[in-house]
Amino acid sequence: MKNVTDSFVSLGHWPFAGSFGFNTDILSTNLINLSVVLGVLIFFGKGVLSDLLDNRKQRILNTIRNSEELRGGAIERLEKARARLRKVEMEADQFRVNGYSEIERKKWNLINSTSKTLEQLENYKNETIQFEQQRAINQVRQRVFQEALRGALGTLNSCLNNELHLRTISANIDMLGSMKEITD
């Protein structure tokens, strides 16, 4: 730390070159620099600062005027809304008086339409049951026919020997050949 302060002290003893030189006294040079900077800022910054403050003042005044206009419009809209509210309340009272009979009529319409819908659903249910019954009957018939066919084939296979089987096949082939000649 002593070396740092020594270097500042030694800067103060530089020889002057002619009439030009550096003032290395930190305290006196800072006061001069500070006063010059403040003087320049006051001289040149006064107009800029004045303009900035005037612009800010105008914006604040414009905002206040706009707020007053908006307030007036809001008060007007509030009055209109209150008038509409009174009108709607009167209409609501009328609807309330007239609404009870309308509600009864709609209730009976709903009951009637619901009963019709239930009837239709009952009819659809019965048709679906009949369709499913018919399908089940057809499936049972098909299974019975398949079992009967398997049984008949099993009986035929067990009763036929090779010679009888070959004669049956030959007779069927001849019969198919004669049918072909008839169709040609």
From TrEMBL:
Keywords: ATP synthesis, CF(0), Chloroplast, Coiled coil, Hydrogen ion transport, Ion transport, Membrane, Plastid, Thylakoid, Transmembrane, Transmembrane helix, Transport
Functional summary from the UniProt entry: F(1)F(0) ATP synthase produces ATP from ADP in the presence of a proton or sodium gradient. F-type ATPases consist of two structural domains, F(1) containing the extramembraneous catalytic core and F(0) containing the membrane proton channel, linked together by a central stalk and a peripheral stalk. During catalysis, ATP synthesis in the catalytic domain of F(1) is coupled via a rotary mechanism of the central stalk subunits to proton translocation.
PANTHER family: ATP SYNTHASE SUBUNIT B, CHLOROPLASTIC
Quaternary structure and interacting proteins, as annotated: F-type ATPases have 2 components, F(1) - the catalytic core - and F(0) - the membrane proton channel. F(1) has five subunits: alpha(3), beta(3), gamma(1), delta(1), epsilon(1). F(0) has four main subunits: a(1), b(1), b'(1) and c(10-14). The alpha and beta chains form an alternating ring which encloses part of the gamma chain. F(1) is attached to F(0) by a central stalk formed by the gamma and epsilon chains, while a peripheral stalk is formed by the delta, b and b' chains.
Cellular component, GO annotation: chloroplast thylakoid membrane; proton-transporting ATP synthase complex
Protein name in UniProt: ATP synthase subunit b, chloroplastic
Family under the similarity heading: Belongs to the ATPase B chain family.
Record organism: Strempeliopsis strempelioides
